[in-house]
């Protein structure tokens, strides 16, 4: 053969052949069979090259690798069907120079790649490469456990480096891409480098495999040991008659499954798990897991519902007797009951009670359950991080348990309880998932009829359950979750409401707790009012209950110390027992001040007054903001400053004041973070007062967002803010005109005592808040 030959070609799929390698493969494609026939007639030589894409049935010349191996056909065997098995021996590498047009088979002109060792006899570096390859390959053979005499002979024989490289490449378990890369590499040293890298990688793989095999062997040995021990234990138990306990457990489950009215799907699952339990050792870890699952499955109240009482009058009586006020919440519940009674069937609403702490959100849920004769289940979600707490853990985990929803149903023993999800705004999240996302399915009336707990793995109908959630603020509740709930605002209590709650609810509760009666301790109405006025300042009644409890405790102590029979607590006695008043509300009533304005703020604890102070000093136009203000509040201050600057002449302020004066705006209680846009009008009023020298009325408070053009925009929480203003002794409040519809929400007892001014423009605010004429302090 000269250096160039014309030969038939077979494209190989998923195979690479090297020189000095004997290989057999099956041929089924028509072109490949024709190429074999031609090769047998012309010296039994054929060229084999690998297809680039294995899945192609009819490759073109561009789909075939350019470098392949010239082979000698050693044997042909006819296989069943139209397949031929061919045995070939690789002779030399070759490069395809061109394809000859031939429709019947691939025919190519190849140029042999010279792998002659004659040119490298004096190459010491190549000798080093060769020795390194032999040592590493020998190490690989030993590690793989395939150290046969024949293989060791091949290593020890004085073969030339090219032949040895081909032997190693054909023996290694490499990917076809890697084999093709080695075949196509012309430089012998680079070929050896590729093989050395592959050998080192395979040695590491073998090391890891052996380590894993040893661990598995130990595990299997331990399992076999445990199996034999358990079989011996079983035999001993049979001899002692203790295996009857297992039969009792299985019979107990079987009886419960047959007696309980289970849905078809649930019954099939229960019987399937019971069948598994019968086939295994009950005291094994897997047996305990199946027992636990069956217990949970049968504890769920499948098909059980409590009979709901739809007596509107009785429900109203129960709600009124246990809670004073909260008219919006009561009204919504009575609406639900009325509609359900008329329609006969209605999905349970998902209510979200939002309001400050201590206003009775949690306790009213319990009253609702009592009023409609439903089981009451409370789930606290505060600080919950793990999604599995809602949906349960998958049974593949050790010590897996269902989620809290299943716990609640088991506790209620009915599928239609009232489930209170307390503190839904305080859900958290971490790497274990977001529980708020898990609640999306629970709180969606369209999805919760087929709620699936990861542990139970069966659909559970939650659509008949009545879900009520509570929150202090809506800000931290994700929007998709909020969208599934009907928001009912539970506002703070008025002074009168607090008095009635204290007298009719809290005092009887405290007396019962301390085992007292009115004969021993008598508390006057003015004493209760003094506690509300001077020792509490909150939207709810939690602190009021604590203060009243403290008052009663101190009075009992005095009663026993002085050996008295009875004690009467009036306003004067309160100060003696409780000490000096903590809160006073008369300080801001009368004094008119320069640059000091009473704003109104809303917090998660209800409404509060927010004084804003502005001070003007000589300087060069700096605006300084202090009081731990949030980003939105800082922007409100800048907008207020810009409005005053652009309308300076209108309010008797020098137009160039910003060149000569520094302004400092401060909101006291600097340690408390403050944010929101509703202090905009307050800041404008404080700036105009400080710059013009006109004082601000001491009995006026205000709220509203301000724009650069002086418009007053609406705000939220007007009721809470009004209550705060009233508590602080303010008798006039200025609100945005667009909040006029919210005025009706303010209790009439307060609305009638406060003058409410509705402002559309900042000018209206300033007219009603500032007094006197300017003193040119600017």
Molecular structure report:
This is Lon protease. One of its GO terms (molecular function) is serine-type endopeptidase activity. Residues 7-203 form the Lon N-terminal domain. Homohexamer. Organized in a ring with a central cavity. The structure is a single chain. By secondary structure, the chain is an alpha/beta fold. The chain has six domains: 4-114, LON domain-like (Archaeosine Trna-guanine Transglycosylase, Chain: A, domain 4, Roll), CATH 2.30.130.40; 123-205, Methane Monooxygenase Hydroxylase, Chain G, domain 1 (Up-down Bundle), CATH 1.20.58; 244-299, no CATH class; 312-489, Rossmann fold, CATH 3.40.50; 495-578, Orthogonal Bundle (Helicase, Ruva Protein, domain 3), CATH 1.10.8.60; 596-771, 2-Layer Sandwich (Ribosomal Protein S5, domain 2), CATH 3.30.230. 44% of the residues lie in helices and 19% in strands. A hairpin with a 6-residue loop joins strand 10 and strand 11 (459-460). The longest helix is centred in the N-terminal third of the chain and has 53 residues, at 188-240.
Write the layout of secondary structure elements.
Elements: E1 4-12, E2 22-27, H1 30-41, E3 45-50, E4 67-78, E5 84-100, E6 106-112, H2 124-144, H3 149-156, H4 161-171, H5 176-184, H6 188-240, H7 244-259, H8 264-279, H9 285-299, H10 312-322, H11 327-343, E7 350-354, H12 361-371, E8 376-380, H13 388-391, H14 404-412, E9 418-422, H15 435-442, E10 451-452, E11 459-460, E12 466-471, H16 479-483, E13 486-489, H17 495-513, E14 521-523, H18 525-535, H19 542-561, E15 567-569, H20 571-578, E16 596-603, E17 606-618, E18 623-626, H21 631-646, H22 657-660, E19 661-666, H23 680-692, E20 695-696, E21 700-702, E22 705-706, E23 712-713, H24 718-727, E24 732-736, H25 748-751, E25 755-759, H26 762-769, E26 770-771
Parallel strand pairs: 1-3, 7-12, 7-13, 8-9, 9-12, 14-15, 16-21, 18-19, 21-24, 24-25
Antiparallel strand pairs: 1-6, 2-5, 3-4, 4-5, 5-6, 10-11, 16-17, 17-19, 20-26, 22-23
Helix pairs in contact: 2-4, 2-6, 4-6, 7-8, 8-9, 10-11, 10-12, 17-18, 17-19, 18-20, 21-23, 23-26
